[in-house]
Specification:
The protein is mainly α. 63% of the residues lie in helices and 0% in strands. This is HPBP1 protein.
Length: 63
């Protein structure tokens, strides 16, 4: 999550992609992330100006 909150755009994209990929391959961890409040944190990231990493944040939310 901290990587997606960084000012470094490349780090944000890679962090969001990693989360999306992990959820796609290990969906059993989804409930843990939901209980940790990850959904609210991901939604709050979408409030910032449009960015390439939003695609991966939305992908992670779809899992």
């Amino acid at each position: 999550m901290r990587g997606m909150q960084s000012d470094n755009e490349k780090l944000r994209v890679k962090s969001a992609f990693l989360l999306q990929s992990l959820l796609a391959s290990h969906a059993e961890h989804r409930d843990t992330l939901v209980s940790m409040g990850m959904v609210q944190q991901l939604v709050s990231l979408l409030r910032c100006p449009p960015s390439p990493f939003h695609e991966h944040v939305l992908g992670a939310l779809c899992w």
